[in-house]
Amino acid sequence: MHEASLAPVPAQSSTAIAVRSLQGHEHARWDAFVDTCPEATFFHRAGWQTIMEQGFQHDSYFLYAEQEGCIAGVLPLAHLRSRLFGSSLVSLPFCVYGGGAGGGAAVRQALDSAALALARRLGVGHLEYRWREVPENMDASWLQKPLYATFRRPLSPDAEQNLLAIPRKQRAVVRKAIAAGLHSAIDYDIDRFYPIYAASVHRLGTPVFARRHFALLRTVFGGACEILTVYHGQQPQASVLLFYFRDEVLPYYGGGNVVARSTGANDFMYWEAMRRACARGYRLFDFGRSKLGTGAFDFKKNWGFTPQPLPYAYQLVRAKVLPLVNPLNPKYALFIRAWRRLPLPLANLLGPHIVRQLG
Question: What is the pLDDT of residue 325?
Fold first, then answer.
């Protein structure tokens, strides 16, 4: 955690706004605000400061605006430094949502001004906000590029209604998996999850996170982070790490083994995440983001979810053009093909050193 040396900012009202850096003893205070802020997401929680610093060794700058002694808005940021991809200040790396949450125009302006001043002081290429929705009266100086969409849908209190809400063809896959005897269980460690997930992303040509990343997520977020594994008999076939926030469930890291596609284990896994969440009183299923034009994007549409474009926004600082660090960039195609050919143990060893630079 790094003090941002921030001073009070004059407000557009009679109440002064002070922008401050989150300190370790203030996590509960920060989270109390996030829990009741309509714009906030799971990725605005203070625990991500620990993930950024202890898990990835990235400097964090979790800023909050204070008015009359109360938090009025929050903006979590982390400094991503990469020899391969340059330097950026992001809200928030490794997270699908971010940007400022809470406050009116004056609070947002105070946080944005502080973030931009910090970005200039750090000498980054760009400042990035991963907004889920465009704020009102967004400053025209922010640049945007369409790349991702998210998929969110309310859950019915009745499990059968949720099953019927899945389009017929996709629902048939789920019913077939149920008839084949697939079942799920909550795991209390990462021993079954990690090998399945690591092998799954390796087949996609993507570097894997370190095992300790998932262990740290479990430690930091406790009961708000859970692992669901799908079995056929005693054989695990698919596994997913879930986040819970207010009345939402977010399947975040998931994968299946080589037989999961033929058995429908991946499909059954997401159905079980829905069914279990519904039974526990959760009312919204967040299927997460996917890149436009990808198989994952089409998969989520096939579940009857409507894509909602994510309005990620950027301010250029030292960079001249927006970065294009994603697997759809043709210059990374050779790397992806080569990565798939690496022996899995070697990919698991090297992957964490690369993925921490991607964000």
Answer: 63
